[in-house]
Sequence to fold (111 residues):
Amino acid sequence: MAYSEKLADKVREALVDQKKVDEKVMFNGVCFMVNKKMCICVGADELMFRVGPDAYEEALEQPGCRAMIHGKRVMKGFVFVSEDGIRSKKQFDYWVGLALAFNKVAKASKK
Fold:
């Protein structure tokens, strides 16, 4: 498994106050499910945040951010952020806050 344990620990710490957090191995990394909904995933050197379609365009303007592309399809509402985009606590907290805000209104995947 090729994900950064350092980044995963940082996410674990940020989500410690959330009531229902599960970790799932997927996307060549580890994904943090909050309330049974995908929220944040950790890869080797970047994080994937589920920010939702309303925050998507503004998110793409932030440093270190790029669109998530799955195959040839752009996954609107999901972004990758490199370590450069989360260096400071303020930057990291921005992304976690955005993902948690969308998580409150996101629909869970069908089983």
Remarks:
- Residues 89-105 form the longest helix (17 residues).
- The two ends are 25 Å apart (CA to CA).
